[in-house]
Amino acid sequence: MSKLVAHALRELSLIGAGENNEDYEGKLRAAVLEIVDVFSKQGHSGYSASLTVSMVEKLLRFMPLTPLTGEEDEWTHIDPSIGGDIAAQNKRCSRVFRRNDGSTFDVEGRVYREPDGTTYITNGSATPVTFPYTPVTEVVDVDG
User: Fold this and answer.
1) Domain spans, the chain
2) What span, in angstroms and rounded, lies between the C-alpha atoms of 109 and 127?
3) β-sheet bridge partners, residue 98
4) Can you give the pTM of this predicted structure?
């Protein structure tokens, strides 16, 4: 067993993952360990590990690896009877939308954070997008 897998097992045990079937029918621990095991077997150095983790995290979060271009092939059109003034959603980053007037916005451009760490989005979360665009999120701390 690699040091990384041993570390993952220890940390997962500390949070009780998988012990009482409380997490996704007890499958979370096995899912995490499978990913950690594959990563461990790839034999990364510090540099390649950092690059791989960064890239995989973006991909698993459905985030783009390069800036969005705004070109027409990046958009999925939304039926006007459903979308109202929203004409399209970006295929590469589902949090980016285009209105009928051509303006674009990121619905998670601004996220609000409560003192307890809870985060949420509101009507005030949408921020304008100019292409090329790399998605960013401004975190706004809310007073308790």
Assistant:
1) 3-60, 72-141
2) 5
3) 88, 104
4) 0.82
